[in-house]
């Protein structure tokens, strides 16, 4: 029986690296994309809270939408009142690599309706 030597495995490491590298790059890319989407969602949630407070102060939906669009372009506003609260829901398409997947982000917030 012939024993294996280091010379027999010479190309094995390179072949394993060539097979594993695309998978590692894909996983790292997905992780970076997920962090980007998370960051966008936090900004949208902050804009929704600001929109609800603005509506609660009696600002018009147009003013609130314009301010939200400055923070997050392409945002759409839907608002409603319930009891002594005014609520705002912002939706917008994700940007960056997530836009290719057609991902839509949404955030909601409510504030005391003091504008009545």
UniProtKB/TrEMBL annotation:
Keyword entries, A-Z: Membrane, Transmembrane, Transmembrane helix
InterPro entries: Rv3655c/TadE, TadE-like_dom
Chain ranges passing through the membrane: 12-37
Domain of life (superkingdom): Bacteria
Pfam families named in the record: TadE
TadE-like domain: residues covered: 11-53
Listed name of the protein: Pilus assembly protein
Biological source species: Protaetiibacter mangrovi
